[in-house]
Write a structure and sequence with these properties.
mainly alpha; 4 helices; about 0% strand
Length: about 90
Amino acid sequence: MLKAGRWRQTEELKPIADKVAQNTELMERLRSVFGSGDHARTREVTRDICLYAQQLDPTFGLLEGTRIAFMLAQKLCPPREPEGAK
């Protein structure tokens, strides 16, 4: 069990994030809301990613599930350099 007050580092979240990424249905839903501006659907998909991560590892909480959703979103569309930055 995870100790109270200790957050997992990104490296510790990666194995579960990789397993979540194998869920085609969830990834398609994440892809469909990415950049859509539909906040309600985005919250719903994020919640479902959190729940799925908890099924894989019951010690995961809402914060870590949300971080996993963010990590997966970054994989779908990595951050771009600002215009003119080089």
